[in-house]
Specification:
about 250 residues; mainly alpha; Multidrug-efflux Transporter Regulator, Chain: A, Domain 2; 3 domains; about 70% helix
Length: about 250
C-alpha cells in the first residue's frame, strides 16, 4: 500500500508518517521502481501500536523501548497513571476555581478571594479608576498568592463586608481628589480612611510583613495611574496604617 493509504487506514497524516520515519519509530519500507514507498500489513500493525501508545500519553521518545519490551511498558503505565491522577486533581481544582468565580461574580483574571476588596458600583468610581483598582488586585493576588495563597485566603475570609461597603463614600471622595481640593478636605479624608480601615488593619497585623517588592510594585502602579494628589494621599494613609501596626520608626509625611 502507498503512504496515503497507510495513513488513512491508521487515522494519521502522511506528514506524521514522515516524522515517524525521521525519528526512527517506523522503518522506511523499500521503494517501488517509480520511487514510491510500499508498505505492508506489518507496517500498519506497528503504526497502530504507535498511535495507541501515544493516545495513552506515552511520549515519542519512550516508544522505541516500549514497543519492543513489555516490562518497560508496564513500568511506564504506572508513571502515566500517576500523571493522569495529578492531571485530574489539577482539573478538579480548575473547576472549583471556575465555580467560585461564578458564585462570587469575580472577573476570571482575579482570584475569587480578592473579589471582596473590589469597590461596588455605588462607589461612583470612574471607569479608569475601576480599571486601576482591578489591576492592583490582580498584582496583589499574584505577588502574595504565589508565596502563601492559602494564608491570604484565610486572612481575607474574615473581612467584614459591611465594613468595606461602608467605605464606599470614602472611595468616591478619594477619586474626586484633584489639584483644587482644599487642604482640610484632604486631611479629613486621610483621617476617615485610617479610621475606617483600622479594623482591617488590626486583622492583618498578625500577618507577616509583605515582601518589600510587593509594596514597591504596588506603589509604582499607583504612581502610574493616579493623580499626584491621590498618590500622595494613598501613600500617607498606608504610612499611618503601617505605623499603627508596626512602629519601626518616626512617622513620615
Amino acid at each position: 500500500m502507498l503512504s496515503s493509504e497507510l495513513a488513512e487506514l491508521a487515522g494519521v497524516t502522511v506528514r506524521t508518517l514522515r516524522h515517524y520515519h525521521q525519528i526512527g519509530l517506523l522503518p522506511e519500507p523499500p521503494r517501488s521502481t517509480g520511487g514510491y514507498r510500499r508498505y505492508d500489513v506489518g507496517d500498519l500493525v506497528r503504526l497502530l501500536r504507535i498511535t495507541r501508545l501515544t493516545a495513552l500519553g506515552i511520549p515519542l521518545s519512550a516508544l522505541p523501548a516500549v514497543l519492543d519490551d513489555p516490562a518497560a511498558a508496564e513500568d511506564l503505565l504506572d508513571e502515566l497513571d500517576r500523571q493522569a491522577a495529578a492531571e485530574i486533581e489539577r482539573l478538579n481544582a480548575r473547576r472549583a476555581d471556575i465555580a467560585a468565580l461564578r458564585s462570587s461574580g469575580s472577573p476570571p483574571d482575579l482570584p475569587p478571594e480578592l473579589s471582596v476588596l473590589r469597590s461596588g458600583p455605588e462607589a461612583g468610581m470612574p471607569e479608569d479608576m475601576a480599571r486601576h483598582e482591578h489591576e492592583q488586585l490582580v498584582l496583589l493576588g499574584h505577588l502574595l498568592g504565589e508565596h502563601d495563597s492559602a494564608g491570604l485566603t484565610a486572612l481575607l475570609s474574615g473581612v467584614d463586608r459591611e465594613m468595606l461597603a461602608g467605605m464606599e463614600p470614602l472611595t468616591a471622595r478619594f477619586y474626586a481628589l484633584g489639584p483644587d481640593t482644599p487642604d482640610d478636605e484632604v486631611a479629613s479624608l486621610i483621617e476617615d480612611w485610617v479610621t475606617g480601615l483600622k479594623p482591617l488593619s488590626e486583622q492583618l497585623a498578625s500577618a507577616p510583613a509583605p515582601d518589600p517588592k510587593v509594596s514597591a510594585l504596588l506603589d509604582e502602579l499607583n504612581e502610574r495611574a493616579l493623580k499626584p494628589i491621590q498618590h500622595r494621599v494613598l501613600r500617607r494613609i498606608l504610612q499611618l496604617l503601617e505605623h499603627g501596626q508596626r512602629p519601626t520608626g518616626p512617622e513620615q509625611s
